[in-house]
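Follow-up to my earlier ticket, as requested here are the two runs.
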Amino acid sequence: MDSRWLSNAYLVADEAGGTAVFVDSGAPLQPLLQAAEDWRVTPTHVLRTHSHPDHVEHEAELGLPVVRHSLETGDLWIDALPTPGHSDDMVCFVINDHAVFSGDTLFKDAVGGGDFQQIKEAVMEVYMPMPHDRRVLPGHTDETTIGREWEENPFVRVWRGIEPEGTEHVRVAGREATLVVWSPDYDGKGKAWVRFEDGTDAIVGGSQVERG
């Protein structure tokens, strides 16, 4: 994890077959390169969840093909699923039906900011139908599971209809709004779903929300 952006990079390896891939590159690479050496595996590709700087910073240093599509390499079976919303090019990668690398769409207790409807569709129609024991490796900070987010993620609980929408009056960038959901976020500043007076919904960083 990069200490500035709290962004993650990963190395995923099939130790038996000796093949590996990187997922994103926005964190110090030396621990991952050392792991590849220790495991005696050969990385073949970089999987890019999206092109924001905190996820591609060290991509060129790896000198490997960068992919955003489904592929097989060695004994790794990788499904790329489009999940636009946080960015137009966002994809998640499911590797060997075991783990999903969610980029900046689904986090522990939160979701990514961006186009509200697209984020909701990605979370509820792509992620939540996945097996509940599937590991979720996000683009920032702590991993989680699909089942945990189904049960505990504040956004998911409201979208499922098991928690009511909030009614607190707030201001966002000088505009009057209702705070529908407040959740923790990986940076400690919170994440909010707000509804403006014209009925528009938005997901914004907690630092943009004036409460009280």
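Run two:
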Amino acid sequence: MPLAIRLMRRQDISQVIEIDHEAFPIEWPPTNFVRELGNKLAYYIVAYETQKVNLRPNPKPTEKERPVRLFDRLQSLFSRRQTPQDMSSKEEPQILGYAGMWIMVDEAHITSIASRKEQRHQGIGEAMLICLIEMAMKHQARIVTLEVRASNQIAQNLYYKFNFDQLGTRKSYYLDNKEDAVIMSTEYIGSPSFKEKFRQTKKDYYQKWGAITNKVTG
């Protein structure tokens, strides 16, 4: 699918909460996204499918059609005008996933990556991870870190793919079931070795899933 990623906006919050509750139904307390969007240390992104626009010109109206079309146009002019809020709500695409990260001094810490259940295993989480790492590079962070449930092997394998290593565990980190968290971190993301591995992993992603329209880092 043609995927785009941009910074989260306040109007995205209702959709993001749906995804968050679906992905993390037993975690407490839930994320306060309104507060997070006002946090200068936090960076949240959303992924959505770009819409295809039909660029074909409309056929010229026949003589019979012209009066009807003119009437329709006049009627629309005198009908209730759409407010910017009405227009934006109709044009907003469905959010497929979201991710968050805090950047503190020289460390970028990923707080969450989640996608809609029906859209999983389609490269969305991986695309957002690519974007987060690029954001960390742009802000000159030295490393990217995160915690992941010890039982979540699928997520761990994704992070290993992007050259994260396991540093240790946090015992009973998750409050819902006292599950341990695996602490993972990259090496220095500004090093030539990491940049080359990251470049190759991105290339592999593009070959499999297609290019990402990254509206965050360009």
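The only thing I checked on run two: The first helix runs from residue 13 to 23. Let me know what else you need.
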